[in-house]
Amino acid sequence: MTRIVVLTGAGISAESGVPTFRDADGLWEGHDVEDVATPEAFERDPDTVLAFYDERRRALASVVPHAAHRALARLEKAIGADLLVVTQNVDDLHERAGSRRLVHMHGELRRALCVACGARPAWKGDLIDRPACPACGERMLRPDVVWFGEMPYELDRIEQSVVACDVFVSIGTSGAVYPAAGYAALASAFGARTVELNLEPSDALIPFDDARTGLASELVPQWVEEIIGAGLSAGR
Ligand code: OAD
Prior knowledge:
Elements: E1 4-8, H1 10-14, H2 33-36, H3 39-44, H4 46-59, H5 67-79, E2 83-87, H6 93-97, E3 102-104, E4 107-114, E5 141-145, H7 155-164, E6 167-171, H8 183-189, E7 193-198, E8 210-213, H9 216-229
Parallel strand pairs: 1-2, 1-6, 2-3, 6-7, 7-8
Antiparallel strand pairs: 4-5
Bound molecules: 2'-O-acetyl adenosine-5-diphosphoribose.
C-alpha cells in the first residue's frame, strides 16, 4: 500500500474564511504574532492573549470546511491507516470534514490547557473569565495552542510517519516554521515522492517532485481523485 503523509497549513483553511499568518501584512488579525503567540506575551499580558484566542475560538462558529478538507476525509475513507494528516492549524475544519487520523501539531483552539495539572479539556467557551479546570478545579486554563518557543505535539509519531511514507504532500503552508518546514526534506531523504499544493511556491528547503500552484479547493480534490482513481499509485 502507498503510505501518505499530508501536512497542512493555514492556506487550506483560507477559503473557509480563516485568515493565514503571512499573506497580507505580516500581522495575525491585527496583532504582531510575537504579542499573542509566545509564553512571554502570556506572562506579560494574559488578558490580551486570552481575549485574542477567545475571539479566534468564537470565529470558528462562522466558518465551515470546504472541498479540500472534505477531499482529505475522502482519502482517509479510501486508504485508512495508510494516511496521516498532520496539521499546523488550530482550527477544527479537518475533523468537521470527517478526518480522524489527524495530528494537531500546534494544538487546538477548541481545547484548553491547564497550567496547574496539564489536563487538556475540550473547550468551546471563553477563557478570559478564568473558568475552573474540570480536572483539578484551579483557575489556570490557557489556550491549548503551541506558542513560539514551545514544543509542538506528537513529534515522534509525526517523524516516524514522515520517514516511513511513500508520498509526502504539503498543502497551504509557507514553509517558514520548523520543524514542520523540514518534513518534506526529511521525507525525500527517506525516499518519498514529494508534492506541494499551494497558492504559490513556498520557501521549501528542497524542490518538490511535483509542485502545483492554485487554490486548495481545486488542487486538493483533483489530487485526491488522481490518487484514488489510480488505485493509489498515481502519487508515485
Ligand atoms: P502561512 O500564513 O505562513 O502560509 C500560508 C500559505 O498558504 C502561503 O504559502 C500561501 O501562499 C498559501 N495559501 C493561501 N491561500 C491559499 C489557498 N486558498 N490555497 C492554497 N494555498 C494558499 O501559514 P502556515 O504555513 O500554516 O504557528 O504557518 C505556519 C505556522 O506559523 C502556523 O501554524 C503558526 C504560525 O506562526 C504557530 O502558531 C506555532
